[in-house]
Write a structure and sequence with these properties.
There is one protein chain. 66% of the residues lie in helices and 0% in strands. It is globular, with a radius of gyration of 15 Å. The model has no long low-confidence stretch (mean pLDDT 83). It is mainly α. 13% of the residues are buried. α1 packs across α2. It has one domain.
């Protein structure tokens, strides 16, 4: 299972489990929010580390960038870069 699939599963679980959702939300106020978030992920049985989350966002953005006009230096700046970490929390806020 890749990081995106793990985040999707965790988000679904958190949407139906108030205690888990609160654990994730509390990590936003931690000294190291991403590290705290990944700790909760691992406690829940998903081996996610901060670099997994960062790399997933970077790989997605790079793939989009390569797909526009050959992906060279002249390709347009993409706005609204998707951040899987922020999208996870956005999905929890929809409740």
């Amino acid at each position: 299972m890749n990081a995106v699939e793990a985040l999707d599963e965790l988000q679904r679980k958190a949407r139906h489990d108030d205690k888990l959702r609160e654990q994730f939300i509390k990590t936003r106020d931690a000294e190291d929010p991403l590290g705290g978030f990944c700790s909760v992920c691992r406690e829940t049985g998903y081996e996610l580390y901060p670099m997994d989350i960062v790399q997933t966002g970077d790989e997605f953005y790079a793939a989009m960038k390569r797909s526009t006009n050959g992906g060279g230096e002249n390709s347009p700046v993409l706005t609204g870069e998707d951040d899987p970490y922020e999208l996870f929390f956005a999905g929890l806020q929809e409740l």
